[in-house]
Every structure is written in structure tokens, then in C-alpha cells.
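Weekly puzzle thread! Below is a chain. First person to post its structure in C-alpha cell form gets bragging rights.
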Amino acid sequence: MNERRELDRYEKTMQSDNLMKEGKARFLEEMHKQIREMERLLDRMEESFDGPLPAQLYRYAHTLKGSAPVFGFAGVGAAAGRLADEWEWTLDGAATGPSVGECVANGRTSLMQLKMEWSVLQRQLLAGEPNEHGPRQYGAARADKLLVVDDDDVLRSFLVRRLELDGYAVDEAECVEAAKQKLRENAYDLILLDLMLFPQSGYELFDYLKEDPSLKWVPLIVLSARSDVRDKVRCLMLGANDYVTKPFEYDELAARIYNLLSRTKNFEQLAFRDPLTGAFNRRYFDHQLELELQRLARYPAPISIAFLDIDRFKQVNDTYGHAVGDLVLQGLAHLVQQQLRPTDFVARFGGEEFVAVMPNTTGGQAARLMEDALELARRQPIAQHEGLSIRVTFSCGVAEWPAGLPAKQWLALADEAMYRAKQEGRDRVVLAGGSPEAAIRPAPDDRTKPKRVLVTDDDGILRSILAARLKKLSVDVTEAADGEEALRYLTEHDVDLCILDGVMPKLDGFEVLKRLKADPDGRLRRPKVLMLSGKKREEDVAAALRLGADDYMSKPFSLVELELRVSRLLETEPQP
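Winning reply:
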């Protein structure tokens, strides 16, 4: 009887959700028509302000103001409310106080806000509805991070929301000083800059970017309401890559962003990447290391370098051949890069040697990051070949930069520490100037240690995407390919959050939850659990939560929403 009631409740909920979804789609369709009609009315009012035209405009705005919040579109309701307030004088039939030009100009500004709200909401609706071609996403599957600098709150908010829907990570700044602060704290793949900022002009950011050697190559698109060719020429001569005049169509801007990023990535791939492993090459490493030290001269902060050498790599080549050796090099480069943050970078130094540069990182913190990578290499195969699983370890030396030391001598410190690791038995991390134990074992009261997230999914591509996305939250991310591997890891390590796929071979996510809940010997270290599953039925969600999951998301899901939920779950310590 209870099951029947639950089923009825579930069916009613689904019917209600479907009705709401249909209602939203119809509302947005009608809203689009009303926006076009209001634009037509404003055009006619520029020719003749007499007659019923202002009252018609008010009625459209007033209708949207009242109906939009019913469908959860608060932004539309607020924008329509402002437009209705501006034209409320038409109710009395009185003559308008402001000039015709002022009335129409204000109306166009409010209408532009409505158009931007409609564009974002329509994009969200399409993103949630599969079609034969899928939604157009210029930035999807990219890890590009953008900075939007504009003092127009409405336009800036619109650009951030739309670009995030296209799959980009986006930060925003309302003035030059805020932009400088963001640029000091983060690495960006592209900057969108409004020229007419207050109190400082956008031109002042040009000088800042040009003076910093690590920023002057970041692609820059200028957004400006000025169409004067002299402004365009000046910006392009100062280093801008593109100039877009306001008002603009978002799709055109998105295409320009995508193409500029693609060209930049292609150039980077040819000039600065090792063709075998995809890691940066020696040329890039030497160049970037000098840039980092120049930055530290202006903004002092800790920075560390790690020198890695694969253990017994010659034996891999002799046993399996050079083709397998190449796979091992590719696997290790990917593993190390995935363990680091977006601001860190890995380069192939030569042969089986790699270097990792970690800005804003002390020697002890860098050594712990490398030890996490080494633990991952110990636990999982680095490469697969004809049914064989190839496992390797590496020896690593870590050195924090002593202020004033030349780059070559700093690198030599890490190299010497790496040779110590080799001499002491390989398969370890040694911190220059300290013991390996001091490097890899944090003190019990170390509160700077980042939270650890275990991503468990049999889909390697999705696992890699999730890991790359979550590292932007400054957490340590470890991957497991199935439930058995996840349980083995949880017996040996503390994990704050486990992202768990519901359907996997060997041991699915529901069985993992059962074992975590039972655990009679207390061997498993219980983390918080966010379950991701293609199962969308209410009973599956209820079963997961009953077994101890702290949250549940159905596939497909939004990466932005995933980040928000992960952030919320990591706000407090996991349950014991």
C-alpha cells in the first residue's frame, strides 16, 4: 500500500515537472515574440510618440513582470518590472515629462536586459533537452578559463552566465584594480576587456599586461561601445588580438573566443609541447621558469620544483619494446599533470625525466603532491598493452626556491635530491635539504592540507574531465576505475569526498555504499559520498540516500552544478 502511494506521488511529481518544463518553453517562446513587438514599438515611437504606442509597451512589460516569477524566472520579472515602472505614466494618459529621446533610450536599455535574460534562459532550456545534433557549445570539453572585465554589471553577469553555459570557467572583475588582483591569483587562457571602465580606463590594463612577461601572451579581446577606427588601431597596436564593438551578438563573440583559443592552443602545441607525451618541452620549461622568477621579484611567494625520473625505465624498453616505453612516458606525464593544479605545469626534460613547477607552493607541500602522484602510480597501471598492465614507479627530488638563487642552480638542487632518492632505493620523494620522511608526512596539525576527492567511474574520459574540473577547487583528486579499486584505496587513505558512479563492472556504486555502511571491522575510512548515476528513478535515489550517500546527481549533469555540490559537501568534515 505504501509502495503504491509512493509510486502515485512519484508519478504526480513527474507530471508536475513535465508541465512546468512545457510551461517554461511556452513562456520563453511567447516572451521572444513580445520582445520583438516591443522593439517594433520603440522604433515607431522614434518616428511618432503620439497615440497608444507607449501604453502598449507598458502592457507588454507589465504582463512579463507578473508571469515570469511563476516559472522561476526572477531576473526576467525584475527587468520587466523596471521597464514597466519607466512607462507607468501612460496609465493616466498624461504627457511624458522626459524627452522622447530619453524615454526611448531608457526603454531600449531595459529591453536589452530582457533580451539577455531570454538568451541565457533559452540556452539553459536547450542544454537540458537532447536533440539530434545536441546543443551548440563552443567551449564544452575545454578547460579554458576566462576573465571578463567590465563595469556594466548587467552585461558582465550575462557574459559570465553564457560563457559558463558554453563550458568555460569564468571569473569577473568590475574595474582595473580588481582585474589585476585576479590576474595575480589565477592563470587565464583569455581576457575580455571593456575599454570604458571607471575610475581607470581599460587602457591601463594594457600596460600592466605588457609589463608582466607571464601575462603579455594571454589572448585579449577588447569590448567597446566606441567604433572609431583610431581606437581599434590603438588597441591592436598595443597587443589586443581582437576588437568587438558594442552592441554585439553573443554568438559572434563566442565564435571569436573559440577561434582565438583554438589558434592559440594549436600554436602552443607546435611550439611548446613534447609531441610524444603532450607535456611541455624543454624550450617552454626554460622560458617559463625565468618568467616565474621575474614574477617573484615583483610579488614574492614560495615556489617549488620537482625533478622526476622513471625507475628502471631501460628494463621496460628491454622487456616490452620502445613502443610500450612510449606508452609509459605518456601515462606518467598524464598522471603527474592530473595531480597538479591548473597553475602548475609539467615538462619533459629529456628521456624518461620530467620536471614540475609549482608556484605558490612550499617545498613540503610540493613533496606531498609528488608523493600522492607516486602513490597513484603504485596502485594503478601506468599503461596497458595487449592485455598486459604495465606498472612503474619514479624517484623524485623536490626543491623550494631560495630567494636570489639562479634558475640553473635551483634545478641542480632538485636534481641532486632526485639522485639521493635513487641511491636510497628508488620509489620515493626526497626534499632537498631535508629527509624524505619530513617531505612526505605532514604534521598532524597541518591545516593547509587540501581536501581529497576520490573520483570513481569506469568511464576513463569522464573520470579525467571530472578530475581536471575539480582541481580548480584546490582539492587533491584521485581516480579509481571501479568499486573494488575504490574500496582498496579507502582502506589505506583518508578521503573527504567520494564521487561514485552508480553503474560499474565488478562492483557497482550501490554495493560500495553497502560495504561502507556495513564495514564490521572498521577498516574502511568513511568519506562523504556524492553518487552520479544514469538511474533517475525515485526509488534509486531513495536507495542511494538510504545506504548513506550524502547527495545524488543523475547523468547527464552540469559541471557547474557538480562544482557547487562538491563545494557544499566539502564545507564540513566528513562523518566518521
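Puzzle host: Confirmed. Bonus trivia for everyone else. Residues 129-141, 434-447, 572-576 have pLDDT under 50 and may be disordered.
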